Inverse folding.
């Protein structure tokens, strides 16, 4: 990392970090989403794992996600220190040293991949290893600082967990796994671009070529609408597979109608309107996007429970 030497005075800690600092280093909010979607992918698969195997698989996938978070914070310490949203993270805030974050991230990466292999199968472990590599090297080290398409291509890293869960149970990839991946992949750009609309100055200050910086907010609003419209058939498509059913389809229709409505409202707004209400619509869309994804995967899980009870499904 180009500015890592200059950050040594910031990232070398003058005191012992606490347990909470290490937890924050692993990006617990991101990890919670990874754990949930991976768990759903595992539980809705047509092959059931022993509860101990299933718990182990989710634990090691979570460790892999935490490893990615630690390595991302190590690499991005220089730009994290410049942005209000990330300046208090453990490495830029000087709570954990950069070298320590790197060592922990590498150690957890190796442990998570090897243990997932032992607990489930080599295919799931290989997919977890590729996910860590993709997030750290392809996204963090390459795309993030190179192109405004960073979050579009890099979003694949966050889309792999349900596929990993599915492969951990079945040993193979299926249409259902691919569509769960596609759901998160297509959801990621409008989710992050909504955040970028009201956090533009952060990315501008840090020199990150987010779409709002390179193309402006008007273009970003249009991209949010386009990607949201492209997301709809993917979301409905998942509901029509073997992991879906009438209940899942009804939930998906309602969520997508609301999501498209929010994207349309954002597209119609100009900067004067947005600044007048401190980006209320954009912030509401961002918050709802989290609920959108959670409820979709909760619906898959509920449909599976209904099927096991003799209800639901197609």
């Amino acid at each position: 990392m180009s500015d890592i030497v200059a950050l040594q005075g910031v990232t070398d800690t003058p005191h012992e970090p606490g347990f909470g600092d290490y937890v924050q280093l692993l990006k617990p909010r991101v990890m919670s989403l990874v754990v949930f979607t991976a768990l759903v992918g595992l539980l809705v698969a047509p092959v059931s794992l022993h509860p101990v195997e299933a718990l182990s698989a989710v634990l090691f996938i979570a460790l892999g996600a935490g490893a990615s978070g630690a390595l991302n914070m190590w690499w991005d310490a220089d730009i994290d220190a410049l942005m209000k949203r990330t300046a208090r993270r453990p490495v830029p805030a000087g709570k954990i040293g950069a070298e320590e974050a790197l060592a922990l991230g590498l150690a957890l990466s190796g442990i998570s991949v090897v243990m997932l292999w032992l607990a489930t199968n080599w295919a799931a472990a290989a997919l977890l290893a590729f996910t860590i590599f993709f997030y750290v090297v392809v996204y963090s080290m390459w795309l993030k600082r190179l192109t405004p398409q960073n979050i579009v291509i890099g979003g694949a890293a966050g889309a792999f967990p349900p596929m990993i869960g599915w492969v951990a149970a079945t040993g193979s990839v299926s249409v259902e796994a691919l569509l769960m991946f596609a759901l998160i992949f297509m959801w990621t750009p409008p989710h992050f671009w909504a955040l970028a609309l009201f956090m533009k100055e952060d990315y501008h200050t840090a020199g990150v070529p987010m779409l709002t910086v390179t193309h402006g907010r008007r273009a970003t609003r249009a991209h949010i609408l386009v990607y949201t419209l492209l997301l709809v058939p993917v979301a409905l498509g998942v509901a029509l597979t073997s992991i879906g059913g009438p209940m899942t389809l009804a939930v998906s229709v309602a969520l997508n109608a609301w999501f498209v409505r929010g994207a349309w409202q954002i597209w119609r707004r100009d900067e004067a309107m947005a600044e007048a209400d401190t980006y209320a619509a954009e912030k509401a869309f961002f918050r709802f996007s989290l609920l959108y994804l959670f409820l979709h995967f909760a619906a898959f899980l509920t449909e599976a429970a209904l099927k096991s009870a003799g209800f639901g499904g197609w």
